């Protein structure tokens, strides 16, 4: 057997095994076709033979008890791969069959023999529909044509059985996928419910935190002012007589100052999230000037360049003023000692929003921390003592309440550029 023939045989066998017919019950339909074949031929015996690697499998028979035999002994295996029918009124007169054990008497005494190959739509012969008799017999052209038809019916039944099996497998896969989808849907529903409950709880916690921050900030600020006043009185009396006590008092006063600044930052954070957000048309340039007025004591030689044609925005002016004051204040606070502080405030139209930028040439924010700095109490340099990690969190809350976004990036040449967006031409959604 050459390579081409061997390869074809491998494909033929693969096609045969794909039908899953060998060693399985034939079924009523195939048995009926074999009986009809014997009737059409006018002989007592008929069989449906399948040829695999080494044997002839008689899937169903009529007129005799079938069995498996070696492929080398099969009469059907001699010519079935040609795709043509074999018609022998007397097999003993054909040298290709005269010495076959089914003819000689070893397995049978076949004289009349007719077989129609069972050829798949892809052109592979699986076996044959065979009718035979122990006596010489002849067929008419009409009989031969009908036997060919029956062979095609058998192949069609093979195809239908295979398709039914494929459909069943597909249906099983669909059921499994549907079950998996139902499980996933149920999991998603639970996750959604848990997320919703978490959001409700988070909102409640935020409201309580805002209320707590507001109350605590107010309640702590008043006694600290009193304590600071008494420390100033004590300092006046002991500063000259007891320098060491004066140093202690100075440390206490500075600590109170830090605490007051922290309380103020907490109060501003609480107000940014709890106070009503009332958008209205506001000139961004005026809000920048108001923020600079509040920061005039911290400018200390810094240059602040404000874009001359800043737009009119649709926002809560009080909150945006607080936002700008925090951002410009940070730029002043985190300036570099080796060069004069330079700050630029600008804005540009970008689709349906304004992009407002506050850029400086200060110490900058490491790339890995540019998202984290908007989290509560996050500081780039905790040891510097220059902040509490609340200012940018407050900015985040203000921008969120206006339906915008805020990000930190690097200024070309070094420093930090903070960009926040605000909607154009419509009131931002107020979140209470």
TrEMBL record:
Catalytic activity, as annotated: ATP + protein L-histidine = ADP + protein N-phospho-L-histidine
InterPro entries the UniProt entry points to: BphY/WalK/GraS-like, GAF-like_dom_sf, HATPase_C_sf, HATPase_dom, His_kinase_dom, HisK_dim/P_dom, HisK_dim/P_sf, Sig_transdc_His_kin-like_C
Location, primary (coarse class): membrane
Alphabetized UniProt keyword annotations: Kinase, Phosphoprotein, Transferase, Two-component regulatory system
GO MF annotation terms: kinase activity
UniProt-annotated location(s): Cell membrane
Protein name: Sensor-like histidine kinase SenX3
């Amino acid at each position: 057997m050459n390579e081409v023939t061997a390869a074809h045989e491998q494909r033929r066998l693969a096609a045969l095994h794909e039908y899953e017919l060998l060693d399985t019950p034939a079924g009523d339909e195939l048995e009926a076709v074999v009986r009809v074949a014997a009737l059409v031929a006018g002989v007592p015996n008929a069989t449906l033979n399948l040829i695999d690697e080494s044997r002839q499998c008689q899937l169903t028979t009529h007129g005799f008890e079938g069995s498996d035999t070696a492929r080398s002994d099969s009469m059907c295996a001699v010519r079935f791969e040609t795709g043509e029918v074999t018609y022998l009124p007397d097999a003993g007169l054909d040298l290709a069959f005269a010495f076959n054990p089914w003819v000689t008497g070893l397995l049978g005494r076949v004289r009349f023999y007719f077989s129609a190959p069972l050829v798949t739509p892809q052109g592979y012969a699986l076996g044959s529909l065979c009718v035979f008799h122990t006596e010489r017999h002849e067929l008419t052209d009409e009989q031969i044509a009908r036997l060919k038809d029956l062979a095609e019916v058998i192949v069609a039944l093979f195809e239908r059985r295979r398709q039914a099996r494929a459909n069943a497998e597909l249906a099983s896969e669909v059921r499994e996928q549907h079950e998996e989808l139902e499980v996933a849907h149920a999991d998603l529903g639970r996750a959604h419910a848990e997320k919703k409950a978490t959001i409700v709880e988070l909102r409640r916690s935020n409201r309580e935190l805002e209320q707590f921050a507001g109350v605590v900030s107010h309640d702590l600020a008043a006694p600290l002012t009193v304590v600071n006043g008494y420390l100033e009185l004590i300092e006046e009396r002991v500063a000259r007589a007891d320098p060491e006590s004066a140093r202690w008092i100075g440390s206490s006063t500075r600590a109170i100052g830090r605490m007051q600044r922290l309380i103020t930052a907490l109060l501003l954070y609480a107000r940014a999230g709890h106070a009503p957000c009332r958008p209205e048309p506001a000139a961004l340039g005026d809000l920048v000037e108001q923020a600079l007025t509040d920061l005039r004591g911290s400018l200390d030689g810094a240059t602040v360049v404000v874009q001359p044609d800043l737009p009119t925005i649709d926002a809560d002016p009080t909150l945006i003023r607080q936002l700008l004051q925090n951002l410009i204040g940070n730029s002043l606070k985190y300036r570099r000692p080796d060069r004069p502080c330079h700050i630029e405030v600008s804005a540009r139209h970008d689709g349906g929003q304004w992009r407002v930028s506050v850029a400086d040439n200060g110490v900058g924010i490491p790339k890995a921390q540019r998202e984290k700095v908007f989290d509560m109490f996050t500081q780039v340099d905790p040891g510097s003592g220059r902040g509490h990690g609340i200012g940018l969190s407050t900015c985040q809350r203000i921008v969120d309440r206006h339906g915008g976004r805020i990000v930190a990036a690097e200024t070309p040449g070094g420093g930090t550029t903070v960009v926040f967006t605000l909607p154009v031409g419509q009131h931002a959604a107020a979140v209470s």
